[in-house]
Amino acid sequence: MSLIEVMVSTAMLATVVTAASVVVRTAYTSWSAHENDLVVQSGAHAVARHLARTIRQATRVVAISAPSDNSGSLTVESATGDNLVWDHDGSSDCVNFGVGTASDLFAENITALTFVGYDADATTATTDPNEIQIVKCSVSVTLPTGTKTVTAWGWLRSW
Predict the structure, then answer these.
(1) Residue 70 domain boundaries
(2) pTM of the prediction?
(3) Structurally, how many domains does the chain consist of?
(4) Does residue 16 lie in a domain region?
(5) pLDDT digits (tens, 9 = 90+) for 48-87
């Protein structure tokens, strides 16, 4: 074997290793981006499920934001008499939750949270808490591919 053959084989090996590392790095970057998108989407689904479940257990709606408000807020009265409050902070894309006031961080990366209250016929929108029997919650997140919105409906059990 000559020195030239060793140098050529070393150069070929270096080319193959470089190409393989580029492919692996690209695959890892793609997987990581997909994983981050999945975490954000899962957060939106969790918020929507939590809201629907809690609304179904509530006795009445105390306060609701206007349907056009993308940084919406909702207050419901629980069976124990506590007022449960959710409020979207548009400046930090967070949803806060609490009893009496929305003071604890509930979810991050939520770009919009809207609530629409409906009368018992499920078609007439209303913001009067005394008439609301159904609440539609829409949770939006922003992904690199666009905005994803998750919607959940909660019927008040007390009705």
Answers:
(1) 42-155
(2) 0.80
(3) 1
(4) no
(5) 999 999 999 999 999 999 999 999 999 999 989 999 999 9
